[in-house]
Design brief:
Elements: E1 2-4, H1 8-15, H2 22-29, E2 37-41, E3 46-50, H3 72-75
Antiparallel strand pairs: 1-3, 2-3
Amino acid sequence: MELFMRDEHGYRIAADETFLNEGTVARLYQLAEADVQLFRIPSLNVVMISFPRPVGQASLRDRDVHSGQHHVPPALLPVPAT
């Protein structure tokens, strides 16, 4: 999942490890923290989040083929005041 920020200010908030880190993502998605990887790309104002899918993409049990709903949990995080 990629979190694209509009500008450098938004990126600094999202990339702050006290706000968004592997532990936070693990709690949001009920995963083991060791299964989560975050990649911060300041030149693009992007934070990439990687974790294993619970089922294979497009398999019979896949309810979100394009992972379109994965953005909801981080979008609900309260953003720290700046």
